[in-house]
């Protein structure tokens, strides 16, 4: 298939021209071949604008915005150049594409926009990517486009940890209590993220102490001997009372009252998880039964025969 003028604006990458477009209707894919504009004799260094010498080339194939039902792939030859003036080494690709990316930025932005209106796992119904790739691209675009959180004038903070997936995986969220703005979001915190979180919590001493004690309390579930667990609980309750925070002191008293039940976990390792899952299943079944009854009632009222 020959290129037509109407297709050129769709793939108008400065410094690159369309060589040809092939369409494979069996696999529903379009292949757009691009080449460097012959009028550009030498690539210039982005640091000092000096012409660069070519070191090596590599054929690339990246995914672009779909064209109707067709997945669009851009094929071109990227090259790595070196500046003799400042020794800068860089890879020259089509605009809107990082050196090692497998998709254009405009496709990633489109996927991120879809994620605002549907779960990431539903995106593959419209774009030929996996749900995990949709989540990764959405996160990448949000980090790139969203402004840095405002930390001035913070009066109070809200912090929570949400369990995600299986195992001990947690997502830590910190919000501005007044505006609801997300100030921090971290999954299975790295040392760098922990440092950033501590800096943020230092703005609110009470919340900082509460977060430290909350993280410390997780150790209770690691004990296998009741005596050791009891000593740890006594120490934790003492620390909670020393903070002088009324909510923590009330919570510590509640733990002390529930001491026997908490310490029994050392021997039996039984939680309410199975009961909770059973209740959720029962609620889901009840919801389906109610929806079915409503549907039957509507049909009967309309006079439709079953």
TrEMBL record:
Residues in coiled coil: none
Signal peptide interval: none
Matches recorded under InterPro entries: Transpos_ISL3 (IPR047951), Transposase_DDE (IPR002560)
Domain of life: Bacteria
Pfam families named in the record: DDE_Tnp_ISL3
Domain spans labelled Transposase IS204/IS1001/IS1096/IS1165 DDE: 187-271
Protein's name in the database: Transposase
Taxonomy of the source species: Bacteria, Pseudomonadati, Pseudomonadota, Gammaproteobacteria, Oceanospirillales
């Amino acid at each position: 298939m020959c290129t037509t003028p109407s297709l050129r604006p769709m793939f108008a990458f400065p410094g690159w021209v369309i060589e040809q477009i092939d369409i494979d209707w069996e696999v529903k894919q379009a292949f757009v071949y691009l080449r460097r504009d012959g009028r550009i004799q030498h690539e210039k260094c982005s640091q000092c604008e000096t012409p660069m010498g070519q070191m090596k080339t590599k054929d690339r194939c990246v995914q672009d915005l779909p064209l109707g039902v067709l997945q669009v792939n851009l094929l071109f030859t990227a090259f790595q150049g070196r500046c003799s003036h400042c020794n800068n080494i860089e890879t020259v690709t089509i605009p809107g594409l990082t050196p090692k990316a497998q998709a254009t930025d405009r496709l990633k932005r489109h996927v991120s926009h879809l994620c605002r209106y549907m779960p990431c796992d539903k995106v593959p119904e419209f774009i030929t990517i996996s749900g995990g790739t949709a989540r990764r691209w959405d996160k990448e675009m949000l980090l790139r486009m969203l402004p840095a959180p405002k930390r001035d004038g913070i009066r109070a903070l809200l912090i929570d940890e949400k369990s995600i997936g299986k195992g001990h995986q947690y997502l830590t969220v910190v919000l501005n209590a007044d505006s609801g703005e997300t100030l921090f979001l971290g999954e299975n915190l790295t040392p760098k993220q922990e440092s950033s979180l501590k800096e943020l919590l230092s703005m609110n001493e009470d919340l900082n102490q509460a977060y430290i004690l909350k993280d410390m309390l997780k150790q209770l579930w690691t004990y296998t001997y009741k005596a050791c667990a009891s000593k740890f609980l006594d120490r934790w309750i003492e620390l909670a009372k020393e903070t002088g925070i009324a909510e923590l002191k009330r919570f510590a008293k509640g733990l002390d009252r529930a001491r026997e039940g908490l310490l029994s976990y050392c021997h039996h390792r039984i939680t309410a998880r199975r009961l909770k899952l059973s209740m959720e299943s029962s609620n889901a079944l009840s919801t389906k039964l109610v929806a079915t009854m409503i549907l039957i009632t509507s049909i009967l009222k309309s006079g439709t025969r079953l």
